[in-house]
Design a protein that fits this description.
This protein is of the alpha+beta class. The protein has a single domain, classed as Winged helix-like DNA-binding domain superfamily/Winged helix DNA-binding domain (Arc Repressor Mutant, subunit A, Orthogonal Bundle). It contains five helices and three strands. A hairpin with a 2-residue loop joins strand 2 and strand 3. Helix 2 packs across helix 5. The radius of gyration is 14 Å and the shape is globular. The N and C termini lie far apart (32 Å). 13% of the residues are buried.
Length: 98
């Protein structure tokens, strides 16, 4: 995830910039429960197919999700449980700010 030659704080900033889009966060939240096909994600996220594809490409490029093709279906999953840990930490932090 990110450029290994960049200082860690630059890589962290890039990670948080990637997470700074509501559709990307929603995709990651949905994938916390199980891997999902694009059509399943579209059913839960009110966004155009092309926009979802762009956001999935960003998440895949930075290594937060993986994709596998099964026949004509592409299924996405969290790349690691650490992504779910990060989302959980965000929820806890926001809860603590109330």
């Amino acid at each position: 995830m990110g450029d290994t030659s960049a200082p860690l704080h630059h890589s962290k900033a890039e990670l948080f910039r990637t997470l700074g889009h509501p559709v990307r966060i929603r995709v990651l939240e949905l994938l916390e429960t199980r891997p999902m096909a694009v059509r399943e994600l579209l059913a839960d996220i009110d966004v155009e197919s092309s926009s979802l594809s762009q956001q999935l490409a960003v998440l895949r490029r930075v290594g937060l999700v993986t994709s596998t093709r099964q026949g004509g279906t592409v299924e996405y999953a969290l790349a690691t449980d650490r992504v779910a840990d990060l989302l959980r930490a965000g929820r806890e932090l926001l809860g603590a700010l109330d």
